[in-house]
Each structure stands twice: as structure tokens, then as C-alpha cells.
Design a protein that fits this description.
Elements (H helix, E strand, L loop, with lengths): L2 H13 L1 H11 L7 E5 L5 E7 L2 E4 L6 H10 L8 E5 L5 H9 L4 E6 L2 H10 L3 H4 L4 E5 L3 H13 L6 E5 L1 H6 L1 H39 L6 E3 L12 E4 L5 H4 L11 E5 L2 H7 L6 E4 L4 H7 L8 E4 L5 H6 L4 E3 L7 H9 L13 H11 L5 E4 L18 H13 L5 E5 L5 E5 H16 L5 E3 L11 E2 L2 H8 L6 H11 L3 H41 L6 H15 L2 H26 L5 H47 L2
Parallel strand pairs: 4-5, 4-7, 5-6, 8-13, 9-10, 9-14, 10-11, 11-12, 12-13, 14-17, 17-18
Antiparallel strand pairs: 1-2, 2-3, 15-16
Helix pairs in contact: 1-2, 3-4, 7-9, 9-22, 9-23, 20-21, 20-23, 22-23
């Protein structure tokens, strides 16, 4: 093994251990490589690559260095924080990019691992491998590359991306490169939906959390139901118009499958005389409470997370199961304070139907069957008959489509017909496809008999699914009840209520303290903005100290930061883009400090809201306890 390869592998082990293992193994195999090392006329290494019917040199056969410089000079990254480059070659162009744009992120994508292997054996690129601003993606799967982009965006490491490619790759990888850009756009839209949801619902989620927290005292934790229904079929019922086709088939399945109602389908089921075992609530808007306030039965298990709108949660008198999701990070903190160990996050996804799928898998169900999952608006209808929100939603859809609102898109359904859908529905479909790819140990079936196809989930008529998989009988309700009763007695409820009260006191005390620090930090940045040219070293030291104290507090780490991070990241990204166009140093500083003011204000507002909400709920508990004391004989 050559010294160059050894140096490069050692660097890979430090930053990309998985890639290091792959290429160390690959280097020991004896095979005819599709990449040949050649010399350009100026003596610099070059690669001759065979790709299908194409054979090409990666770099100029005369002077790769000059070619790389000229290629880089044509690139303009104003307004972009990241450049994605197709083709690694010998790395000359990456070195020139780093010289010209040292502060920009570079994502180097190489679809041919033989090219990268040849590079590892040809040039010492440890300076590129270990560079914090350079990321190598070696894959021929465009979706794998797209997932890396999504992860980087979710973590706030990249924002706006410019795409460029080696000239030699342009023709050979034209279709592949186009598909990668499409996957990038798809993942970027998913990220934007997640961001918009987080920003839009941040205050609502906090309100629901505090208003609903006391319900934890009378709820079972979903961890008690892990694998409780191993190899029992589950049917996840969504509210799409397709449900009209086969909802009647559910009437005889109460003892043959775990029936899980996702969101608004509960009202449709009850209108048809069908009682599911579990109904799932997650949405934070007031409309969610309208759904659950209309539930007639008190035998259904209400599976919820504390983002769900509190009114419907409080009013429901039946049994409840609490779970935490990967979206809201306070779940672990609350579990810890409640003395709950070993509880896992459930994967939230883009909708309650995505989440219901994870509940079914977590409980051990197999196969998992989807019905009512249109992911579109056939005949401009939103829901099946009987949905609480159907009339107003149908009216809205018709009006928007008739006005040619671009929000609605045309896609092909499972029969090849054009149907209207939305980006948010496509993100639900995409999530399903990703989910079943990752959790491939279950059988997933789509019995909707209509709607958009979901890759990885076979379309099978529901009656055929029932005949094949729903033949045995189980006491599903009894199994739910047994686990629920095991967790409760009068003492355990009182103990939980006391712990919740302690949590609220803890939060209120912390928020009252750091609220003043957040206000002081804003006052200091305003003073600086009023005199940009002055010496503010003392004020910046105060700001740094206050920032440390605020950010080391539990309520910041588990409540404020997770709910504010997308908004704050958006401010940072927007400021960084526009500052490139401001030449005057004082104006640049003013623009930067105004961005800090916006961030500090966002944090302060969340702290104030937490302080007010915790105080309100504590006062309600005290009032209730006072009334109970007065009513005692």
C-alpha cells in the first residue's frame, strides 16, 4: 500500500470513517478499473475514465491547472453560502475554489467511486479531506446525496446552494446531475415545510404544552406498549376521499387488526358506526380540538403528543396514551423530571398519518395497512363523507383551483389520472417512501384503492388484504386495557400531579430569572446600535456573559432554542447573504447588529411567553386545589 494512499486513508478515518473502510477494502481487490492514470502535457496527473459508451479525460490534456483557474473564475457565489460540485477528478478545481472562496462551503459529489479511489492513490489530498469547509459525497444514488443536503440544512450548516460541474462530466452525467438537483429541490421543500411549521406553530406548541401538561398524570406512556401487538395487523385510517370506497369493510375487523384513526378520520369512522382502538392527535391548531370534541365514544385510546391542541385533549374523558416525538426536544427533559426511563422518540413526519405509521411499527404491528390515503384531491374533494372539516375545506380547494392558485399541482394517481395535490401532501408521500425504506422489517400495504402511488408500499384492494392477513382474532381492546390499568392507581396519579407541579414551578422560576437577562441583553444591543462608532467592549462582554447564562438554562436548551432555531437561522442566513453587497464597514456592522437584535428579541419573546404560561397554569392548579379543599367535609 503506497504512502500517498495511506496518508489519505488516515485523513479519511478522522473525518469519514465509513468511507475510509469502504476504500481501504476496495483498494485490496483485484479488478480492472474503469479509470486510468495518464499525464497531461505539462506533466500533471490526469484521469482517463470509461463510463458506459463514453471515454473521456477528466481534466485538460494540456494544462489542468490553468483549466481549473479559468473554471473557478467563471463562478459567482454572491448570495450563496455553498457550492455543490459534480466531479472530484484530481482535485485541482477544488483547490482553486478553496483559494478563491475560502469562507464558502464546498460539497464535492463524485458518483464514480473508482475515480475517488484512483485519486486516493495518486495525490495527497489530506488538506482537502480535513478542510472543515469541504465535504465529499461519494455515491451514485442521487437520493443519498439529497439526504445529505437535507441533513445539512436541518442542522443550519448550509442555506443557499449553487450547482456547478466539471466540463468533462457535463455530457456523461447530464441526466444524473439533473436528477440530483430534483432530489435536492424535493428535500429542500421538505426542509422548508418543516421550517415553516416550526416558525408558524412555535407559540401554539408552547401554549398547548403548558395547557395540556396536567393530562400526563392520567395518561399511560407509549413505552408501556412497545411491541405489545407483535405480528398483529394494523390498519391506519386516514380521512381521504378514498375511504368512502371501503370503510364498510372495517366493521368486522375490531378483533382482527389494530385500527388506528389518524386525525380527522375519527369522525368519519364514528358516523359509520365504527370504533377504532386508537385515535392519534398531533396538530396544534384549534381545528384539531373541533375534531376530538366531536368524538362520541370514551372507549377509544387517545394517543397524543403535547403539541396537540389542548382543548380537545382536556375534554376527552377516555383513556390516553402520551408519546414524545423527534420534533419537540423537551420530551426527554419532561420524562427525566417525571422519572420515566428508556422512552424513545417517535418519528413525527409531515402529518398525523406518518406518525400513526410509526406508532403501529413501535407497537410491533405487522403487516401495516394504509387506507383513505389519497395524498391528493380527487374531484376537488378534501375528505371522505363525515369529516368535521370537509365542507369548508372542499370550498377552499374549489375556489383556489378555479382561481388557478399555483399552490396546487397536478400529479398522476395509481390509475394514471391527473389529480390535484400540494407540496405538503407530496412531503407526506415522500416521508412514507423514506420510512418504509429505512424500516424494511415490516410488510406495508396500501389498501386505499385510489390516490397517489407510494413507492415501496404495494397497492392491494382492501378486501384481498383482509382475506390474506386479517384472519385471526385477538382481544386487542383487552390488551390495551390491561397495560393501561397496570400503570394506574390513585397514588400514582397524585404522585404524577405533584411532579408536574414541580416541573411548572421549576420552569416558572427559571423563566422569571432569565427574562430579565434577555431584556437587559436587548437594551445593550440597542445602546450599541445608537452609537455604532463608539467603543463598546464593556457592553459586548456583558452581552457575552448574559448570553452564556441564558443559553445554559434548561428552558432555553429544551424549549426556547428548539422552537426558535429555524427563525434564528433564517435571520443569520439572510444577513450573511445581503452583507456581501454592503461595502461600507459601518453599514455592515449596523446590518449585523440589527440581525442580532432580531434574534435576541425572538428569544426574549419566547421566554416571556413561557413565563406567562407557566404562571397561568400554576394559578389554575392552585385555584382548583383551593376549591377541592373547600368542598371537603
Amino acid at each position: 500500500m503506497g504512502d500517498i494512499f495511506r496518508h489519505n486513508i488516515d485523513a479519511l478515518k478522522e473525518k469519514y470513517p465509513y468511507l475510509a473502510q469502504v476504500f481501504e477494502d476496495l483498494n485490496t481487490k483485484d479488478f480492472e478499473s474503469s479509470v486510468v492514470l495518464e499525464k497531461s502535457r505539462n506533466g500533471m496527473p490526469n484521469f482517463k475514465v470509461r463510463k458506459g459508451e463514453h471515454t473521456f479525460f477528466v481534466h485538460s490534456t494540456y494544462d489542468p491547472k490553468t483549466e481549473a483557474v479559468r473554471w473557478t473564475e467563471r463562478i459567482d457565489l454572491k448570495g450563496f453560502d455553498t457550492i455543490a460540485v459534480l466531479g472530484v477528478g484530481c482535485g485541482y478545481h477544488i483547490e482553486e475554489l478553496e483559494k478563491r472562496f475560502p469562507d464558502k462551503n464546498k460539497i464535492v459529489i463524485e458518483p464514480d467511486r473508482n475515480v475517488f479511489l484512483k485519486l486516493l492513490n495518486t495525490r495527497d489530498i489530506t488538506h482537502l479531506i480535513l478542510n472543515e469547509n469541504i465535504l465529499f459525497i461519494i455515491t451514485e444514488d442521487t437520493e443519498d446525496a439529497g439526504r445529505v443536503f437535507l441533513s445539512l440544512r436541518e442542522e443550519g450548516q448550509i442555506d443557499s446552494v449553487e450547482f456547478s460541474e466539471l466540463l468533462s462530466y457535463r455530457k456523461v452525467y447530464e441526466e444524473w446531475w439533473l436528477n440530483l438537483k430534483k432530489d435536492y429541490i424535493r428535500f429542500a421543500k421538505l426542509h422548508q415545510i418543516n421550517t415553516n411549521t416550526s416558525v408558524f406553530f412555535a407559540e401554539t406548541w408552547l401554549t398547548n404544552l403548558f395547557e395540556g401538561m396536567l393530562q400526563l398524570a392520567r395518561s399511560a406512556h407509549i413505552k408501556e406498549y412497545k411491541s405489545a401487538f407483535a405480528n398483529i395487523p394494523a390498519i391506519i385510517v386516514s380521512a381521504g376521499p378514498a375511504l368512502n370506497k371501503n370503510i364498510h369493510l372495517l366493521k368486522d375487523l375490531y378483533d382482527k387488526a389494530v385500527i388506528i384513526s389518524a386525525g380527522s378520520s375519527i369522525n368519519i369512522l364514528e358516523n359509520r358506526g365504527i370504533t377504532p382502538h386508537i385515535m392519534v392527535g398531533v396538530d396544534g391548531g384549534e381545528a384539531e380540538s373541533r375534531i376530538f370534541n366531536n368524538v362520541k365514544s370514551d372507549e377509544i385510546y387517545f394517543a397524543y403528543t403535547l403539541s396537540v391542541h389542548y382543548d380537545g385533549l382536556k375534554n376527552y374523558n377516555g383513556p390516553k396514551i402520551y408519546f414524545k416525538t423527534n420534533v419537540l426536544e423537551y420530551g426527554d427533559w419532561i420524562d427525566n423530571k417525571m422519572g420515566i426511563d428508556g422512552a424513545e422518540y417517535l418519528r413525527s413526519g409531515s402529518s398525523v398519518s406518518n406518525l400513526s405509521l410509526d406508532i403501529a411499527r413501535y407497537m410491533g404491528c405487522n403487516p401495516i395497512i394504509l387506507i383513505g390515503q389519497n395524498l391528493s384531491f380527487p374531484n376537488m374533494e378534501s375528505y371522505a363523507q363525515g369529516a368535521v372539516l370537509k365542507q369548508e375545506q372542499d370550498k377552499s380547494i374549489r375556489e383556489h383551483i378555479e382561481q388557478n392558485i399555483k399552490y396546487y399541482l397536478l400529479e398522476k394517481d395509481i390509475y394514471g389520472n391527473d389529480v390535484y395535490t400540494t407540496e405538503s401532501m407530496l412531503s407526506i408521500k415522500f416521508y412514507f417512501e423514506e420510512y418504509v425504506r429505512i424500516y424494511s422489517d415490516r410488510l406495508y400495504l396500501n389498501g386505499s384503492e385510489d390516490g397517489l402511488p407510494i413507492r415501496g408500499i404495494e397497492n392491494v384492494p382492501l378486501n384481498e388484504i383482509i382475506e390474506r392477513y386479517c384472519t385471526k382474532e385477538y382481544d386487542i381492546k383487552g390488551m390495551l386495557d390491561k397495560k393501561f390499568k397496570e400503570e394506574f392507581d390513585a397514588g400514582s396519579v397524585k404522585d404524577k400531579e405533584a411532579k408536574i407541579r414541580n416541573i411548572l414551578d421549576n420552569i416558572h422560576n427559571q423563566s422569571s430569572e432569565i427574562k430579565q437577562k434577555a431584556i437587559k441583553r436587548i437594551d445593550l444591543i440597542l445602546d450599541i446600535l445608537n452609537n455604532i462608532r463608539g467603543n463598546h467592549n464593556a457592553k459586548w462582554k456583558q452581552i457575552d456573559r448574559l448570553t452564556d447564562e441564558i443559553e445554559n438554562c434548561d428552558i432555553y436548551k429544551y424549549f426556547v432554542e428548539p422552537l426558535s432555531k429555524y427563525f434564528i437561522q433564517a435571520i443569520k442566513n439572510e444577513r450573511e447573504r445581503r452583507m456581501e453587497h454592503i461595502s461600507d464597514i459601518q453599514e455592515r456592522l449596523k446590518y449585523l447588529y440589527e440581525g442580532l437584535l432580531m434574534q435576541y428579541t425572538e428569544v426574549k419573546e419566547k421566554i416571556v411567553l413561557i413565563d406567562e404560561l407557566s404562571k397561568k397554569v400554576i394559578e389554575e392548579i392552585d385555584k382548583k386545589e383551593g376549591v377541592e379543599c373547600l368542598s371537603m367535609p
